Amino acid sequence: MLERELVVSNKLGLHARATAKLVQILAPFRCNVTIAAKGREVNAKSIMGVMLLAAAQGTPVTVRIHGEDEVAAMEAVAGLFERRFDEES
């Protein structure tokens, strides 16, 4: 199992478009992925689950990944966070 703490750095936080990108990037992976913030942990492949976190800019989140392709999945998630969900240039 891999675990990594990331910070939501895009201006709008984990809103609908950013959440959709996260779910889309994780869809091809077979591993289980959860994301935790503010005392809640949800399935990161669920748009509704991630939106319920209401993670605004600056919110630290913990991503936990377990499964056969966990390393590649973590790289994809971390890259998306680092690119601020491709929303800012």
Automatic annotation (TrEMBL):
SUPFAM superfamilies referenced in this protein's UniProt entry, alphabetically: HPr-like
Report if keyword Cytoplasm is assigned: yes
Q: Which CDD domains match?
A: PTS-HPr_like
Keyword terms of this UniProt record: Cytoplasm, Phosphotransferase system
| One matching Pfam family | PTS-HPr
Which NCBIfam families does UniProt cross-reference here?
PTS_HPr_family
Q: What is this protein called?
A: HPr family phosphocarrier protein
Q: What organism is this sequence from?
A: Pseudoxanthomonas composti
